[in-house]
Every structure is written in C-alpha cells, then in structure tokens.
Design the sequence.
C-alpha cells in the first residue's frame, strides 16, 4: 500500500464510522479540507493513468489506479447534491455526474490485459481534467463561505501542488515535444516548480522547530531537492517514473504532517 493512499484511506476511515449507513455518509459535512482530499486522490489517479500510458505493463500503476478508484467510488457519489447556494449546488451536481463515466472508463482501461497496446486516453484525461477543475472551483467556493480555515490547510495544498507538478511532468513525457502546447506546458511546469520550491522553503522555516512536523517536512524538502533539477530542466534526461515515485513520497509526507494537527 502506497504512502499517500494509506494516509488518505486512514483519513476516510476516521471520518466515516464503519457502522454508518449510506444516509449518514452522504450527510458528511462538506468542507474545503474534504474536497482537498478528493483532489489529492484524483490527481494521484491521473498520474497513474499517465504512467500506464508510458508503460502498459506497469503493475504498480495498475494497483494504485484500483486503490484510487475504490476510494473515489465511495466519496464522490456520497457528496451532497445541494449546497448553500445555487453555484455550489451546480458544482456538486456536475462533479457527481462526471464521476460514473470516468470510473467505468478507468476501470475498463485498468482491466485490459497487460500485453495490450495502451488505449487512447485523451477523452478520459479531458474528463478527469474537467472533474479536477470542478473540485478546485468547489473548494474555492467553500473557502469563501467559510473564510476561517485551519492554518495547516496550506500543508495539504502543498501536497496537491506536488501531485499537479508530477501530473504535468508525465503529461509532457507522453505527448509530442515539438508542439506549441508542449512548449507552453514546459514553461508552466517550470513556473509551478519555482512556486513549489518557494513554498517548500517557507514551510520548512515555519515548522523547523515543531516537535513533530519539523522532521517530515525536512524530509519532504530533501526529496524535492533530489528531483527539482529533473523537473525544472525538462526535457533533458527525462525520468518520469522517478519523478512520479518521489512526488508521491513528498505528497505522502506532507499529508502525514497535516494529520498531526
């Protein structure tokens, strides 16, 4: 079981009692933190779909796709259908409507024989990108409704930024490097990498003396420094599998820190 998957599974098990009915699960309070956890799972799913595009024999990616689907199949359908206003309700309805098609398509892809040729995934990835956008807009809306969020939410946001970086890197590894879109994406990747590095430095300064959070944040920063050049200098010496692996470790470390508060 992978670090980030294990942490998120623990979060979900803690937030939903084993004996709870379907109605109780559906009534779970809708918060920015809860949506952020869904974004983390979704972006990890997208990363593993890209890994499968690069190597359809990748057993680890297949296993993690199934893990992601299991969790998202539980949490996204159980989101409420009504929010505090019409805009929030619309975002919830679209999010819930997108998921069944994505889930079925991803399950079909993950169950294809390993010896098969990787199937075309553009339409699936476009649907996933739309769902990711819906979750982001929903989280932003919830944060305006409840401006006073936990200060430590920025740690989870940093974990999500790491997953997005990994996703962008893998997308570049899959597609034609000569296109205008690829050139624009490389610039975006470098911008995100600089942003992540700056935020990582601030987190390290903020928590370096914390009795519990200091060590895992230092470890996350050390891991980041190990892959930072590979990300910032893409496409020179591209190492997508390594970037995906260490990005997952960083996100797992940061998510574990958030659980301490």
Sequence:
């Amino acid at each position: 079981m992978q670090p980030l998957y294990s942490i998120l599974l623990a979060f979900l098990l803690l937030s939903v009692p084993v004996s709870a009915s379907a109605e109780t699960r559906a009534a779970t309070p809708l918060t920015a933190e809860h949506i952020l956890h869904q974004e983390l799972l979704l972006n990890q799913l997208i990363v593993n779909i890209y890994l499968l595009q690069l190597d359809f024999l990748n057993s680890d990616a297949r296993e993690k796709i199934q893990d992601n689907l299991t969790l998202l199949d539980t949490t996204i359908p159980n989101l409420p259908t009504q929010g505090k206003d019409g805009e929030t309700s619309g975002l919830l309805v679209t999010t819930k409507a997108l998921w069944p098609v994505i889930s079925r398509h991803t399950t079909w892809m993950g169950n294809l024989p390993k010896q098969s040729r990787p199937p075309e995934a553009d339409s699936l990835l476009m649907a996933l990108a739309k769902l990711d956008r819906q979750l982001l807009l929903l989280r932003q809306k919830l944060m305006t409704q409840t401006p006073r969020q936990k200060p430590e939410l920025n740690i989870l946001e940093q974990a999500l930024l790491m997953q997005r970086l990994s996703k962008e890197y893998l997308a570049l590894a899959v597609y034609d490097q000569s296109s205008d879109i690829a050139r624009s994406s490389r610039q975006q990747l470098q911008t995100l990498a600089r942003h992540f590095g700056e935020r990582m430095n601030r987190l390290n300064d903020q928590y370096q003396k914390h009795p519990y959070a200091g060590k895992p944040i230092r470890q996350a920063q050390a891991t980041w420094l190990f892959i930072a050049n590979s990300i910032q200098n893409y496409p020179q010496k591209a190492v997508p599998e390594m970037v995906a692996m260490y990005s997952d470790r960083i996100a797992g470390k940061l998510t574990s820190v958030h659980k301490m508060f």
Q: What stands out?
A: The mean pLDDT is 87. Residues 32 and 153 are 9 Å apart (CA to CA). DSSP finds ten helices and no strands in the chain. The radius of gyration is 18 Å.
